[in-house]
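Retro notes, item 3 of 5
We never archived the inputs for the pyridoxal-5'-phosphate complex last cycle. Fixing that now. Sequence and ligand:
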Amino acid sequence: MNLFNVYPLFNINPVKAQGSFLWDDKGEKYLDFYGGHAVISIGHNHPYYQNKLKDQLDKISFYSNSVQNELQTELAEKLGKISGYEDYNLFLCNSGAEANENALKLASFHNGKTKVLYFSGSFHGRTSAAVSVTDNPKIVAPVNFSERFIKSEWNNIGQLEETFKIHGNEISSVIIEGIQGVGGIMIPTAEFLSKIKELCEKFNTVLILDEVQSGYGRSGYFFAHQEFGIQPDIITIAKGMGNGFPVGGVLIHPKFEASNGLLGTTFGGNHLACAAAIAVLDVMEDENLIENAQQMGHYIEQEIKDFPHIKLIRRKGLMIGIELDRDCSEVRKSLLFDHHIFTGNSNDKNVLRILPALNIKKEETDLFISALKTVLEKI
Ligand SMILES: Cc1ncc(COP(=O)(O)O)c(C=O)c1O
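Structure as it came back at the time:
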């Protein structure tokens, strides 16, 4: 059997990883400034994380959501405390798309409405409703398309008000990323977010903040929206939550009523997933990683801002979009093959997406900074 060929692959085969470095099967060392799409939050193979998972493997790795699982309670308590959402409830699942899928369903169960408002440049995942609110027609299959999903322009308050004027009474939820990642590190304005919040309250519409990529400390806040002082009804998480172990979650305001069977999943919140997620939160707290994200992000920006060919830097914490005056693919390839540094791209072909681990060290950022300078001075 062959693999279903949907991914453009670099011809690199990593076999070992530690901290912010990877090694391939030929022993070549690479610096990871992308974390495999923003997943590696506390560094590869962090010893505390490894031990937590090994200990858990020795005890029990899985049983379904038909029995007590104290690890879920421990995770919910820790997450509530560190995020400031102690009064919210947690539903555990396996990925970002699944978290958003459940959030959209829950909103609709709650208010009985059918339409969803999303924004240009959005990416919310590839499952049914999640892909319908993703602004990329190439990945929306005909079976996912429906006029119930309404797109409005990013950061455009006038259009938002107009859309609510026409459809407001039918809009079940608004879904928005804390910071758009795949869209090219697009940051919402404070005015835009507070207008969304105001309209959601007025029209009994559920506000869903997708913090799958921008959450878990990456922006220098636990959740990116916390900088703006708004409070969503539902928050979705995944990626950095498990540092590579597949786990996702939905944080749900107490006004939403749970009932048996309303939501569910076979694997969500299993023992190993909870052990991984607890380990991530412990390390984030012990090592002050949110503060490190703020400091290292600021340092990188200061060091690179005057490099040639950089038009603009959009950044919060360690979520960094470097907009070049040209397509970034050659720069990315040179960073990878000439300097052994992984970086990311985005739907904007000029934007290099930088998402290092939150415990990146200054000397590691210096490797990236000096390689970027060399590459940009050469083109
Ligand atoms: C903001 C956002 N939401 C949702 C998703 C989907 O997450 P997953 O790939 O875990 O389903 C992604 C993935 O890139 C994302 O960036």
